[in-house]
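Batch 3, record 17
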Amino acid sequence: MFCEAVESIEPISPAELRRTCLCIGDVRVALCGHQHTEFNPELQRFRVPDHRADIQITVRWTDQLKASPGSPIFDSGAVWKLFRESGEFIFDFASEAVGPAPYKRMRTRDFTSAQLTLNSNLLPEDAWPLEYPGDELLITNYLAHHGLGVEVHGCGLIDAETGGHLFLGHSGAGKSTTTRLWKSSRNPEILSDDRIILRLDSGIDVRQGTPTVHVGHGTPTVHVGQAARLSNELWMYGTPWHGEAAFASAAKAKLNRIFILQHGQRNQITRMSFSRAVGELFARCFPPFHSAAGLQSTVNFLEKTVRTVPCYEFKFVPDSSAVEIALNFHD
Amino acid sequence: MEGFVFMKDENHGQEKKTYEPPRVTIISLRPEEAVLGHCKSMTAAGPVGGTCHTTGNCQGIGS
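Prediction for the assembled complex:
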């Protein structure tokens, strides 16, 4: 049994049933069984009123949380390992700094609901249950598991005149520099300087292939009698997971192209081939490496993304000319 | 000319494209960035260091 001593888990009192609700990347997350009052400013922007949740999380505390037996199906090499038991995914979070026992465990079958068990011997009472990387793991796996989107490593911003711009890049590629350059010259709304969620907007529930009411963007629309399909709109969403420039916004914007950043001797924009663009996007996203189906779903999504908008390699110099080049570039 | 079928010019008079053999392009992955849970700051994720206790702080240095 991976689940430890059920009888030791403290029951949830009625007062604790109040839910904390977040909406990140148009994924609605509800957290119950835990009252959290101190939110950092970035996360606070993603809080929403109680609502129907895409992901329902129940939080429990226990003083008996032991390491899962057996071999993990995936070892992150960082603080978490993934196990499988009876069709469930079990994420054990542990750190050598606090001992071999997990400080947290997350169980989920399909990422639409999850049980978080927190180790009261290792975590303070005011610990945020969805502390990194649990939050991103849950949402990225949910997106991949249901073929809805992908989280990418990049900075996204909304310029008041020209709309959404997305600049992808590995660490050191210039995301924070780009953010600062745009901020100083155009003062755009920065969605995040490090993590952006991409989704293709269809207005149709592509998981079910059935008509649904779509309320994602603007006026709710009822689609009846249409087959499931993806339209040609790519949207980016801000996340609370920022970089060194600490920008985070819950806003979203439609994208017409994607730039992949690289430092250069001069400003130069080059269109990428279809296959290379899919590969470069994959190298800058956060796919579920533990799951063949999840990886396939991620590649499929990126393929649709590249069919929807062109991707460009953007070699840039770190001054305001890079902003002008991007603004004035038309393929 | 009954009984003859003329081939259609599917290229519409355009020059045929030069054949380009498939090329292999290697795109490097960075596991320490692609797998969630690695910190870019000098502290680790989880209940270890002061900067990792709140969402987002773990990605606080470098991008």
